[in-house]
Each structure stands twice: as C-alpha cells, then as structure tokens.
Amino acid sequence: MVKKGNLTRLQKAAILISSLPEEASVKIFKQLKEHEIERIIKTVLSLDPPSRETLVSVLEEAFENLKDITPLKLTKEHLKQILKKALPPDVLQRLLTQTFDGEEGKAIFRELEKLDSKLVANLIKDEHPQVIALVLSQLKPNKSAEILQYIPKRVGVTNIQEEVIKRIASIEKISSQTLKIVADTIEEELLAIDAGNEESLSGVDIAAEIMNALPKDLQVELLEEVRKEDENIAESIEERMFKFEDLVKLDDKVIIEILKSIDKNDLMVALKGAPEEILKKFLSNMSKRAAEMFIEDMEVLGPVKKSEVKKAQKKIVEKVKALINKGVIEFGGGEEYL
C-alpha cells in the first residue's frame, strides 16, 4: 500500500490526475507535453493502490477543503479512455505500444523477483539461452545470479551458463514487443504449474520408481493387475519406469547395444537437451574419431526447438524399451542393471 510520506511529486501528480473526473483529466493531458504524459502513465502503472488516507492527504495538499472526490481509477482501461480523447491517433498508438506494452511486459518480472530462485530456474532452464538471457536481464543482479546457479551448466555440448552471460552482455536494446512476448511465455509457464500454490508431487513417478526396484516377475504381475483395473494408470507407470535420464544408469555394454539400434540423427537431437553425463556416456562408448565427428555434427546442428528435443528423446526411449522387452538388454529388477 502506498503511503503519502514516501511519495514523490510525480507520484502525487499521478494519483491526483487519476482521481479526477474523466473530463478534468482530459483537459490536463491536453496541456501536457508528450514526454510528460509518458512519465505520468508509467508512474500510474507502477503504483500500488494508495490507501484512502493517502489519497485524501494528496488531494488536501493540492486542493484545500476538497472533500467529495470520485473513486480512484488507477487502471489501464481508464487511462486509455482518457488518452483517446486527449491525444491524436498517431501519438496515442505510439504511447500505447511503447508504454503500455512495456509496462505489461515488466509486470511478470516483478512477480519473478518474489519467487524462489530454484523455481524460476526450473521454469526457464529448457528455454533457448537468448530467452533465459532476456529474463535475467530484467531482474535484479543478485536475483539473476542466484537463478543462474540453478541453471544446468551444460546441456549437450553447450555451456548454458556461459552462453547466457555472453548473450546478456551483448544486449543493447530490447523492444517492448519482444519483452512482452517473453513475458507472456513465462506467464503461461507459471499458470501451467500454478507456482507457489501447491507442492509438486507425482504419484506416478513414485510408483514407477518402486516398480523398478521390484524383481522382474513381480513387476510384470503387478502391472497386469493394475492394467485390469485402469489401463491408463498402468501405461503411465510403465512409461515412467524408463526415462531418457535413466540412460546414464546403464552399463557400457548396454549403451553399445543401444548405439547399434538407434538413428544417430535422433540421438544427436535428443542429446541437445540432455545432462552432460548422458552425453559423456554415449561419447565414451564411441571411437575417438566417431566421438569427435559426433560433437562437430551437434555443433553444426545449432539451436533445436524444445519440442523436437523431447520428440527425439521419446524415440530413443521407445527403442530402448523395445530392446528391454525383447530381452536384448535388461533394466530394473531391483538393480540399476543386470
């Protein structure tokens, strides 16, 4: 809540103008220069709603004996209606694009400042380094430093932390439209996970981990029983019993067997979004020359969409599952590898 004692002259002016009847606000805006209007708009949009005590104090300071005032309207739509009447269409459009879009875009970053750094890192870690750089550039340096430490240092052959720092350093100017696009993307991610409201817990993942620790014959028996009651739950458990990240648990002989059976291009794309230890696992089971060529090809490949990485990882997992089902390789049964 805004308190009068902490207000600047500009903030007081913004509160005063926003409190007046629409017709009076229009007359005031018509008397102001464009840069003055822009400063007032930005101030109004950045202000928290003032208390009635603060509002009355501001008005009493400006207008002695003024008692009956209209309700405070510190809203975007209220400002737009006033500006439409006060400004020429070209000036109005420019201000709406530059000021309103910019302020809307910045709002989500103020929310990120309040969230746990590890949560924010998990939210953005799979985004392109340029997007991560744009997000961190809008936060306080200490907050950005905390978040960056939780971002995986290396994904595939790319050092993400280094790449993000380089891209932040190369930023010269960010358009309000670009900022809003990034902000909208982050906001969608936040809404998807309902950040801060509930503790994240996946019962299916827990069930899959328990199943992996059971003997093979008991795994099969339990899955069949679950399938009779609910096929969807059985399939969800089975799907999570082996994930792409589990490749790192496999014996080198198994990795060699997998390399014989999978498409190298699929593996290249899949490893773009993989932890460094999985990349090393595959490279260490290739010849020195093959590993060098593989890394070169990955670098030439350049940035890959997150959806394409996930698709490639899924194809690899399906191949591995097929090898497990055929008995060519084994996974689980109470041990990491038999």
What report would you give on this structure?
The protein folds into 3 domains: 4-87, Annexin V, domain 1, CATH 1.10.220; 103-193, Orthogonal Bundle (Annexin V, domain 1), CATH 1.10.220.30; 242-326, Flagellar motor switch protein FliG, alpha-alpha superhelical domain (Annexin V, domain 1, Orthogonal Bundle). Strands 1-2 form a two-stranded antiparallel ribbon. The chain is elongated. Helix 3 packs parallel to helix 6, helix 6 (89-114) packs across helix 11 and helix 8 (129-137) packs across helix 10. The chain has 19 helices and 2 strands. It is an all-alpha fold and 338 residues long. A hairpin with a 2-residue loop joins strand 1 (154-155) and strand 2.
* Major sheet description: 2 strands, antiparallel
Distance between the termini: 62 Å
Q: How would you spell out the order of helices and strands?
A: HHHHHHHHHEEHHHHHHHHHH
CATH fold category name of the largest domain: Annexin V, domain 1
Count of runs of 4 or more consecutive helical residues: 19
Rounded Rg: 28 Å
Instruction: Classify the beta-strand content into a percent band.
Output: under 5%
The assembly state of the depicted protein chains is single chain
CATH-assigned homologous superfamily of the largest domain: Flagellar motor switch protein FliG, alpha-alpha superhelical domain
Structural class: mainly alpha
The averaged pLDDT comes out at 76
CATH class of the largest domain: Mainly Alpha
- Helicity, as a percent range: 55-70%
- Assign the CATH architecture of the largest domain: Orthogonal Bundle
Number of domains: 3
The side-by-side strand order for the widest beta sheet comes to 1-2
